[in-house]
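Why does residue order matter? Because the sequence determines the fold. Keep that principle in mind as you read this record.
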Amino acid sequence: WHRQFFFSTFFNYLASEFPAHIFPKLTGLANFGAGLASGTQTPLLQLTLNEFGGDFLPLNTFMLCWATFLATAAIVHFVQVKRKKIEDSVSDNSDTSPSTDLHAPPKKTAEDNNNNNNNTTTTTTTPTTT
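Structure:
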């Protein structure tokens, strides 16, 4: 019954966490990966029995190193992507952020120039009679 539990949980997770339009692609990719892993079992068992005399330690060590490498590569990739997104958002906001130089005058924008032109008033004096 563990297969039923695994497959129902896995496909429920895919359906609930990802958009419906990529569900077929995700399930196909997952089934492809499972097929590759399943297809390598017989050759790996033959390698262990024939070349290593039934000792699973060399192959298990290799698989552990390979899994660690792939996990590390994935983490590094995702950290770099996240860092790039943060840097891009910071550079996009740098044009609107206030100046960090406290001694520099504030930057004038076109809106400030328009407001200055519209707020100019002329003063006229009227003669007073006594």
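The helical segments are 2-17, 23-39, 41-51, 57-93, 110-118.
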